[in-house]
Amino acid sequence: MPVEHAAIIGAGISGLTAALALSRRGISSEIFEQAGELTDVGAGLQVSPNASRILAEFSILEGLSKVWLEPDAIRLISGSSLRQLAAVPAGKFARERWGAPYGVLHRTTLQKALLAAVTADPLCRLHLGVRMDTTLPPFERAADVVIGADGVWSKLRQSVVGSPSPRFSGNIAYRFTIPENEAPSFLDRASVSAFLGGSAHLVCYPLRETGSFNMVAITAGNIAPQAWQSEPTAEQRAQLRARLSGWNAAIVSLLEKHRKLTFWPLFETTSGAWQDGRKTVLIGDAAHAMMPFAAQGAAMAIEDAYELAAFLSNRPVAEALALFERHRAPRIAKLRQRGAFNRFAYHAKGPIRIGRDLVLGLKPPLSLAADLDWIYGYRAADLP
Ligand SMILES: Cc1cc2nc3c(=O)[nH]c(=O)nc-3n(C[C@H](O)[C@H](O)[C@H](O)COP(=O)(O)OP(=O)(O)OC[C@H]3O[C@@H](n4cnc5c(N)ncnc54)[C@H](O)[C@@H]3O)c2cc1C
């Protein structure tokens, strides 16, 4: 029997994208979101061409392109000498090579654009302030498929035997912002800069919507179980300071100066089943929360949502869900591997760091770009 109606738990990037993707296939949906309103959550987001290509299908890319920044390059820079080690070209090059733009924006900008499209779509119905606990929320109409887009702490996971569980990754993000007019000159206003140093890296890029730099330092660290976003304690600040030993004084003082740091322990999920063989499926962070070392979590959520809708459009639900999982799992596994490799390379120390810098220095920009073709050049199922 063809799928006609879906229930979606969670109105984050994966849930909203799923509603839009299903609607394009003529499938209606009800989305249940625990928050009473969708407010400014999260930080900056890099949207790579594999994801922006999908956003174009919902006619929201044009609006985003007007407010976001298309960085001219993704630069890898030494955290001690501030010397550029390598740069992947982006901007016009990204549009030409990967057929869609690479943009950076505030996560809220993307979520609001998706939300506006969902609200305007007669096949999508959003219920705010409805939290799923141990049972599913009451649907207005019986759902043929139930989609868990409820993030790393997913409740719907309990309906899928052998589903992944969340675990602390051993990494902590410290986030802050700097008004653009106060930013030191070593912060490039036209690109994404990743400063690399032993045990930590710092990603910085300007957010045009807010006139500030989004700054996220990621280090190894410890936390109390279930700790979540908060101001770092004196001890956590000391932990960060220790990780920055040997870093350039200008960067260290930037982090010291910013009293308003957000301490953000990073959780990921173990591998496990994403669907129950009947009508329940997990997507996005609910299925495979990953570390931001390849900046692909939201992009994978968008790809998941789009491809799930494609599979559901022309087969029985159980078959579509099994196919979806089989199709997506190898790509997610490969991305996790890339993330783990990036972590190793970004946080390298001693001789490994010297080797890394040599290798990066020898790689021409085109060869760095070619290494990313499988990620950014990906065309989700059924895309032209
Ligand atoms: C520091 C950092 C930097 C990152 N940078 C990038 C980047 O540059 N590019 C990129 O692609 N990705 C990036 N990511 C990853 C990206 O943010 C996530 O992968 C993505 O937002 C996941 O979206 P989601 O919709 O699956 O989950 P979420 O965004 O977590 O959304 C889940 C939604 O479900 C709702 N919900 C939860 N539980 C319930 C419930 N029981 N009932 C009802 N509703 C519920 C929540 O309120 C929320 O709205 C980064 C992540 C981090 C931590």
TrEMBL record:
SUPFAM superfamilies: FAD-linked reductases, C-terminal domain, FAD/NAD(P)-binding domain. GO terms for molecular function: FAD binding; monooxygenase activity. The keyword Oxidoreductase applies. The keyword Oxidoreductase applies. Its cofactor is FAD. Pfam families: FAD_binding_3, NAD_binding_8. Coiled coil: none annotated. Keywords: FAD, Flavoprotein, Monooxygenase, Oxidoreductase. This is Salicylate hydroxylase. It comes from Rhizobium leguminosarum.
